[in-house]
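Hi all, long-time lurker, first post. I run a small reading group and we've been trying to get comfortable going from sequence to structure in the token notation. Rather than ask abstract questions, I figured I'd post a concrete chain and ask someone more experienced to write out its structure so we can walk through it together at our next meeting. Sequence below, copied exactly:
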Amino acid sequence: MKHYLKIMLLAAGIWLPLLLYAEKPIEIFIVQQELHTGIVFRIADVNPEILPQVKYFDRFNWMDIGWGDYDFYQAPDNDPVLALRAIAIPTLSVLRVDAFRLHPDAYYGNYRKLRFCLTRKEFDNLCMAIAATFLKDEEGNTSVTQTGYGLKFYRATGKYHLMNTCNTWVARMFREAGFRNRISGIITAGQLFSSLSRYECVN
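-- Answer (accepted) --
Happy to help. Here is the structure in token form:
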């Protein structure tokens, strides 16, 4: 009996630390808020060496990043002329970074969203892909085009058009993170959510 007790104690001494330090999944969301679709994650989870822009939002808890047409995305209202031009011809793009304190469930209310649980590697890959979307000059500096409370717009890489929308960009970011989702043909939020729903974290 004492022999078995020693074995059990030894096993506990080996496995308990491993269980305590097991990798904790990183919670992220995709959110559709009217014409905006973005990737939402906790700022504290971000490695600032990978995505240094988080240092400007250290007063907040969460960050929503989306990509879109340069003019339409920054307009104060949904200008139909700008919207038509954005989908008709390839246009310049920006990244919209919106930081806030509340949990996304409270912040976005009834807006459509999906929740995912990423490994550290997947999340770092996602952040690297997002970081690569910021347009940088020869010295590696980004360019802020508009700013507000908890909100910044940055010049971005890529051209926006009908076949390359904010939803296409989100799909591309998830593929870069390591998911096996499709990118081609993802134009609308409905297509994006349908494509990624099988990866949703429901526990």
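A couple of things your group might point at:
The helical segments are 2-20, 70-74, 80-88, 104-108, 120-133, 166-177, 189-196.
Residues 2-20 form the longest helix (19 residues).
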